[in-house]
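Escalation from tier 1.

The customer reports that the assembly of two entities below gives different structure tokens on two consecutive runs. Tier 1 could not reproduce it. I'm attaching the input and our single run for tier 2 to review.
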Amino acid sequence: MKAATPARRALTAGAAACVIALATPAMAAPPAPDADGFVADRAFEKHLAEQLLDAKPGDVISVPAGKWKLSRGLSLTASGVTIRGAGRDKTVLSFAGMVAGPVGLQVTGDRFTLADLTVQDTKGDGVKINGTKGVTIRGVRVLWTSPDNTTHGAYGLYPVGCTDVLIEDSEVSGSSDAGIYVGQSDNIIVRRNHAMQNVAGIEIENSTHADVYENVATGNTGGILVFNMPNLPKPGGFTRIHGNVSQANNTPNFGAKGTAVSIVPAGTGMIVLANDDVEIFDNVIKDNNTVGIAIASDYSTNYKIEAGSPGAHDPFPERVLIANNTISGIGAAPDNALFPAAQLILGAGQSMNLVWDGFARSEGGDNGICVATGPDKLVRLDAAHPGQLSLIASRDCSAFPRQKAVVIP
Amino acid sequence: MPTRLRLVLWSILSLLLGFALLGRAAGESGPAPGAFPAKLSGWGLIHREGAMLKARAGSVTYDLATPLFSDYALKWRVLFLPKGAKVAYDPDRTFDLPVGTVIAKTFYYPLAPAAQSGGDTVLKARPADYQTGTSGLRLGRVRLMETRLLVRRDAGWVALPYVWDEDQRDATLERVGDTIALTLVDGAERTPFTYVVPGTNDCAACHAPDYTKGAINRIEPIGLKARHLNRSFPGAFGEENQLARLAKLGYLTGLPEARTIPANVDWRDSAVPLDARARSYLDINCSHCHSPVGAARTTGLWFDQGHEHGADWTSPTRIGICKQIVAGGHGGGGRPFDVAPGEPDRSILLYRVGSSEPGTMMPEIGRSLVHAEGLALLTNWITRMDGRCRLASETP
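Tier 1 run:
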């Protein structure tokens, strides 16, 4: 016998119940669900953890339908494993009562697939995949349910340092940083997802070769972000954002003070921060109360730039293509605190659809930013003369070096 | 059939069967159910002998210059090397211990005065409660929690957590870990907490050192490095440097001159410089992830004291000085820098080391309590550090 902690006593009682169940034709009553319908079933949790522990390449681990309350984060190290629920409305894993984690599901195995289930209320990130090759996330939901959104975990779906990442047909809401966050990864597709009520809906950070398309980002602070942050081992670039809807992302910023996303103004459709070789085309960007697409350098953040040192971070966004987007209903109630230039731009009678902070690598240069022929002009703030701005007219961008669509092998 | 022939046939059969079983065990990538003894005693390495817990003869008891903090548990570390094992000295990496090596780390607490054997009320250890354990562990007023085994097999290291049974006679393999409710007593203060036994997969969270070469989940011991072992400790040949002892026992080869061997210091030793104490503390508590190749390589914050993947102490940003938060959600606590010299209240490092909330606390796993003394050391280190950090908005 083990120590008679309450949990142990419960386990022992459970085991006794099983024995009785075997002796009688009736099934043992499962543990009673809580007020939200969740069941804390130690035997289920142990079995699931063991399945992950014993998984071998090619295994498909099916998580049955049910609302399960787990006490600790899950981890998978084996490669070539699929974890599949019975559907994200049917298989729900709640980590609201977790005593260890802090991540809901942590994966370090290559060629991993997660599908058709919900992960909710983790103390830290929802699903984190670190340093692997081959990530597929399909039909998954991650959410936080507490009304106090500042207590929510940072990232919903969080591959970092990965290669060949596919996130599709999934849904993330409530994260206090980015709902779908791909960090320091390469060769990425994020498509047909729905990101709602996060600080950042979808964020591609310090990653290369990302294709982000046909997603819907709504109700976030900022819809879709392409960031390049200093002091990280891998710089990003080569991102295509196309065919997305970024709508009514007007939730006040509830990100933790000091984090990268805490500078995102409420009412932002998209931001390109210090990232190079970015194409934004065929998107619908509407009803965002501050700005449609913002192009910013590190100088508009609170990050201190250590220019000049070898291998130093590049603070400028360069070679950004903006083409054929439908932008409407922008700037109705700008977040003046986080976007102080709003009054200047609106006061000058200009549109907030496209705004560049104006910091150029070379004096008078345009950083290779090209707004293709269409109704929108790019408002360029004057970095050297605060309070002034100029307009960059749309033009023929056919010479802009285009990237190929990302293919996941 | 003559009895003799039958015997020979049986021997061949059992030999074949034995080889088949061995082959199966060695070819596995991870521990499968039934592949390991369900009870710790099944290993024949550690056993109860009256009021003592004894390790098999020929083993080596050791300790580290500075250990990882684990909720104030005391740890008894024993190294079981195969007979005739030769281990090459390495100044930097974990020693390449041969197949067949087992490392056992037993976690225990002194029991509170009124508590029964196996009870859930334990004491925050005083120096007098610590046992070197060189002739075994005295169990009189002790609550045994778990014994973690690291086993070197052909395919690599395997981590196995054994949780001590309530009667404290033996421990049971709990491959997915366990949680045990305890109360820690420190004078008049009683702190209930959850003691978390890591599962085999959780072990990789600290013991998988390199995420950059493909074999992410290849685990290895942490403490069996020159700099952690390079200290004096009782045992064979009396009070002796642990590396010298291993060399004298014939296990460790190529040991260079003592003065050239890297050494971490005892984090509690006020006679050594504060900086060395803090670095040794950060090394053992953080650098298994926070190194240029570890799980937290992507943070750009590195504390490894080794040479190969060593923290670059000449680059202040890499050890967090004036480094602004990039990710981490609420882990920043609203503080602007990882380490802000002279400004402990503006240093995220202290916020996270000082938290016990999953998602905020660092290290991410392995504890439920705050290490008040470790936090005090790091606070002192930062308070007395030269220089100042300013945000872009604070620059005149």
